[in-house]
Amino acid sequence: MDSIVIDSLKKSYRKNQPPAVDIGGILTISKGELFGIIGPDGAGKTTLFRMLATLISPDEGTAILESLDILRDYREIRTILGYMPGKFSLYSDLSVRENLDFFASVFGKDVESSYGLIEDIYCRLKPFEKRKAGNLSGGMKQKLALCCSLIHSPSILFLDEPTTGVDPSSRRELWETLARLKASGMTIVVSTAYMDEAGRCDRVGMMKAGRFLAVDSPEDIISKFSRRLAAVRSDDMFRLLKDLRCMADVEKCYTFGDTHHVTLKKDAGIDAASMASILESEFGHTGVYVREIKASLEDCYMNLEDK
Amino acid sequence: MKSGHVIEVEHLTKKFGDFTAVDDISFDVRRGEIFGFLGANGAGKTTAMRMLTGLSFPTSGKGIVAGFDVWTQSELIKKHIGYMSQKFSLYGDLTVNDNLELFAGIYGVPRHEAASRIDELLGRLSLSSEKKSLVRDLPQGWKQKLAFSVSIIHHPEIVFLDEPTGGVDPAARRQFWELIYEAVDEGITAFVTTHYMDEAEYCDRITMMVDGHVEALDSPARLKEKYGASSIAEVFDILARGAVRSE
Q: How large is the ipTM?
C-alpha cells in the first residue's frame, strides 16, 4: 500500500535560478518503508521535506500522504506526520519535560499515551528532565527532538539529517530505534550524509539539482555498478592520490579510509599486480598495496556524482 | 617547548562545579602532522579544544599552543592559530572579497600585505572571478574551501578544524580533506575533530577521548593493531563501550 505519492513536485525560490526541487513523474513510498535520501548540499532535500510537511507550498504538482493531499488536506496531514528538521527547533528556554508536554498538548495528546513509542530514547533523557533544552549537548538535543516528533504517534516520520554531529554509538542507537519504528508500520523518510546509514534503508533516492537521479535498494544500486574498482595504498598517501590520477587507465581516484579507491576506465586492461609495479618503478612509491575490490554504496555515490 | 611540537599539554584539567569535563590529559602535537581528536558526544573534546584555542582557562595543568601559554597568553594564542567549524564560517551577505578583508583584518594581517594575499588565495582556489559575489550565492563546496582558506589567511602554525565536514556529502568531504592535505603538505599543522571514522584514517595520529580522559593516542595503523580491529570505527566502539558518562 502506498503511504506517500509524490507527483511532479516543483518549487523555485528565486526567479532566474533553477528550481530547488523539480521532480518529474511519480515517486511512491510504501507503508512501512524506510526510505533514504542522499545527495550533495543544495540538492533540494530539505525543500522536498518542507513541501511534504506542508510548511511551504509547491509551485506545481502535489503529493499525497496517507490519502491526504498536501495542498487541500494540510491540516489533517499535520496530525499524522512527525517531522524532525535538520536545525534544532525546540524551545530552548523550556525544560526537556516541558517541551515534550507542549508538543503533546499541541496535538491534543498526553505524553503517557505515546510513551511506549519513545520510551527507549526518553529513558536516556529522563535524568535531565528539568534541564532547559538549550543547555543540552548536541546528541541529547537530537534525542529530545526525535521524542517530540513522535509524541503524537504519527503514521509518517520525516528526519532531515538526524545524525549530523552525532557520534558513531549514538548514530547506531538512532538507527536501531528507526528499525523498531519501521517494524511497527511507520513510514520513515530520512536524509543522511552517511552512506552506511543509507545502506540500512529499504530504498535510497539519490538527489541532485532538485531531481532524483536514481531510486533503488542499496543492494541493487551496488549490483548495477559495473566498473572495476581497486583499493590502493602506499607509504605516501597524498602523493599517491595525485600520481594515481595521472595514470592512463585510471578514471577516478578518491580517498577511502586507509586506502584510495580507483575506478578504472571501461577498456582498462591493467591488473592489480601491474598497477603495483608501475607505482613502484615509475612513481617510486614504497609499501605499495593494490587489490581489486567490490563496490560499496559509497563507491557508487562517488561514481554517480559526476553524471 | 620542543621545536618539533606545536602543542604541548600536561595534566590539563577543566572542572565545572563538581563535574570534571576534561580530566588530566597530556599529549603533544607534532609540527606538520594531521592530529585527529575523536570521542563520543560529551567526552570532553569541545571543552579541551576551547582551552587550546584560548577561549577558556583550565582549572589546572599546563598547555602551550603555538609557543604561547594557555594561562597567560590566550590572546596571543588566538592570533597565532586558525579556527574553522561547520557552524561558524563566513558572512553570507558580504562579498567574497569583503569576507577575506574582514578576516585578514581580524587576524592582524598587515594592510599592505592583505590585498596580495587575498589575490593569491583567490587565484589558487580559482575564485578570482567571484570576488564581488555574495558568499551566500556560492555553491556549498566553494563556501567551504573559502572558509578553510580564510582560517589560514594569516599563515598560522596550526589550524583547528571542529567537525569541518559535519553533514557534508561523501564527495564534498573528500574535496575538503584534499585541502587539508595540501595545507599540511605546505607545513601547517592540522588539529581535526570528526565523527566520520573513515576520516580518522586520514590523520597521522589520533586521540580517542573517553569520559574526559585520553584513552588512546597513536597512528591509525597502530591503534588497529593494538585493539585487533580492522577499522578505526571498531577501535572507537571498543573504547567508547567502556564509557560511563552518557553525555
A: 0.86
